[in-house]
């Protein structure tokens, strides 16, 4: 007998979200940026129990390859963050703007875990000021022009970006298959 698939979440709240999870770097660092947004369902309603993970290179485009993803003390930048959404579907990260890697424009890899999903969905967050690099990015080159905007964050301040994730429906975020 085969066991049926189960959807992801709601999450057991022990150790998945953790206090320092959204702080890839401390917000007081001079190179820190803030990434905030909301996770929305197909009707545009907030998803209050989603979990987002980010993975990224550092400001020089170097991918961290040492231990210390959860406890960053003594390890500096880990390239990893995790944040659960609040009642309004909101999330936030304090990180650094990544450098370009492997011919791609600078981006942050984003994984979204949410109820109703059998597996997490993957997307990328690109930065609006890198428009020239977007033209030669291999992944963005495969995305139809009309959908690319769902992968580009909006500038919300000097060192602040907004990136909403729409799980389905009109304006659905582009998700990647691996």
Automatic annotation (TrEMBL):
Domain Intradiol ring-cleavage dioxygenases intervals: 32-100
Molecular functions (GO terms): ferric iron binding; protocatechuate 3,4-dioxygenase activity
Top-rank taxon, per record: Bacteria
InterPro entries: Intradiol_dOase_C, Intradiol_dOase_core, Intradiol_RC_Dioxygenase, Protocat_dOase_a
Keyword Oxidoreductase: yes
Keywords: Dioxygenase, Oxidoreductase
This protein's record includes keyword Calcium: no
EC number: 1.13.11.3
UniProt cross-references to SUPFAM superfamilies, sorted A to Z: Aromatic compound dioxygenase
Family per similarity comment: Belongs to the intradiol ring-cleavage dioxygenase family.
Annotated protein name in UniProt: Protocatechuate 3,4-dioxygenase subunit alpha
Gene behind the chain: pcaG
């Amino acid at each position: 007998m085969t066991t049926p698939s189960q959807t992801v979440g709601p999450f057991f709240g022990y150790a998945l979200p953790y206090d320092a999870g959204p702080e890839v770097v401390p917000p007081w660092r001079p190179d820190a940026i803030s990434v905030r947004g909301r996770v929305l369902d197909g009707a545009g309603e907030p998803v209050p129990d989603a979990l987002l993970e980010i993975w990224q290179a550092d400001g020089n485009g170097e991918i961290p390859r040492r231990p210390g993803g959860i406890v960053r003390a003594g390890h500096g930048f880990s390239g990893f963050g995790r944040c659960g959404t609040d009642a309004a579907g909101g999330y936030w990260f304090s990180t650094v703007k990544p450098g370009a890697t492997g011919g791609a424009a600078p981006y942050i890899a984003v994984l979204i875990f949410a109820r109703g999903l059998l597996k997490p969905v993957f997307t990328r967050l690109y930065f609006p000021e890198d428009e020239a690099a977007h033209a030669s990015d291999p992944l963005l080159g495969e995305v139809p022009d009309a959908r690319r905007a769902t992968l580009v964050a909006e500038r919300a301040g000097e060192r602040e970006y907004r990136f909403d994730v729409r799980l389905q429906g009109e304006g659905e975020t582009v998700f990647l298959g691996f």
